[in-house]
From TrEMBL, chain A:
UniProt keyword list: ATP-binding, Nucleotide-binding, Transport
Highest rank taxon of the organism: Bacteria
UniProt cross-references to PROSITE patterns, sorted A to Z: ABC_TRANSPORTER_1, ABC_TRANSPORTER_2
Name of this chain's protein: Polar amino acid ABC transporter ATP-binding protein
Pfam families registered for this protein in UniProt: ABC_tran (PF00005)
Record-linked SUPFAM superfamilies: P-loop containing nucleoside triphosphate hydrolases
One annotated GO molecular function: ATP binding
Automatic annotation (TrEMBL), chain B:
NCBIfam families linked: HEQRo_perm_3TM
Keyword annotations of the record: Amino-acid transport, Cell membrane, Membrane, Transmembrane, Transmembrane helix, Transport
Protein's name according to its UniProt entry: Cystine transporter permease
Species in which this protein is naturally found: Brevibacillus parabrevis
Annotated Pfam families: BPD_transp_1
TM regions (residue ranges): 16-41, 53-76, 186-205
Gene3D superfamilies: MetI-like
Amino acid sequence: MIEVKQLVKSFGSLTVLKGVTLSVEEKEVVVLLGASGSGKSTLLRCLNFLEFHEAGEIWISGEKVDPHKTNLNHFRAEVGMVFQHFNLFPHKTVLENVIEAPVHVKGMKVAEAKELANELLKKVNMQDKADVYPDMLSGGQKQRVAIARALAMKPKIMLFDEPTSALDPELVGEVLQVMKQLAKEGMTMIVVTHEMGFAREVADRAVFMHDGQILEQGPPSAFFENPQHERTKQFLRSIR
Amino acid sequence: MIIDIFLNSYPLFLKATWLTVQLTAVALLLGCIVGLIIAFFRISNSKPLNYFAHLYITVIRGTPLIVQICILYFGLANMVTLSQFWAGAIALAVHNGAYIAEIFRGSIQSIDRGQMEASRSLGMSYPLAMRRIILPQAFRRAIPSLGNQFIIGLKDSSLVAYVGMQDLWGTGLGEAASNYKQLETYMVVGLYYLVLIMLFTYFVNRLETRLAKGKTLRKQAKDTSVAA
């Protein structure tokens, strides 16, 4: 589904990704763990070409994507992204947020897009708020709308960049619930998160990043119970 | 007496007011178009466009409006046929465009980066994201500064009197020269400007409150309809 080979990315003199190689299978749920600054978010942003990698390769569905040559809009539409700070469009209602891309990127008819949007809003349990502006929503509600908005493009893979980090603790559960449901339905997902419960329960694989590289990865049970590297052990201790 | 001047001259001044309004409206509309283009040049990745926009803003802000008007009217009018009205309107548009460009640039850049990222991540192209997501928010944010600039533009339009236009100020100059009652005549002219600007301010304020309340109002309307 997605293959990353020896990916390198730096910001000025700071090299954030130092040759990351990762491959994610269809329907796999991968959780990216690591301290802040380890490069998790940058890796995710490279996969959606919000940042352009400098060296290495990214393959999506068997096609190599060169951000400087390929038409990226096509690939971005296939890769859904959910942000830490939701980034809903504040001048549009919940429903308008969801139908925006299907209508204006895919050229879907408005009526058809609304039908799709209502379906998706039902799925994230936000159907009652369709005509409300994002300002009126709680963080958890905003994030659920953001998930519906990303799903509206029918992406092949969903990227989550710390989707619950900006939420009040009591709102985290409702967002994780939606993500669990998605995973159950067979969505391919890469999730940057600090929610270890989610990682253990839902992920097929945990990937630990340190200093711009993947240090260790494996099934969550093995990863959490029996980490190999000293740095991984340290990290797991610190978040417990 | 000021009242006599007012009563004797109002047909003339109303005509002049209409010219001032037309001139300012055309100039500011063009100024907004110029301003938007220059603002895009300034935030674009292209070095030549950046440089051009920077030069434009520096030169226009760095020279007096009256000099710009005279250059356009007496200078360029020799090369191209330009009516008095259009010479004035273009000079004012070019001048206001530089300030409006900075207002637009500021408001576009004030929109959170996440908005563009979210748009792009949904597959939107840069121009589409700009048009559908960034600009609608930026315009709303620009309204207070834009209203302020429009008021300045309206008042500055008085300078076209010096290339012979019979706008409010031009008419005032002519009247005072013939009736020798400078104080009263100029006060009457001031009054016309004041009323124009108060009216304009009223509409801008209403627009602002309506946009600010827009969301809440629509929500309330929905809530009451649900309750009923």
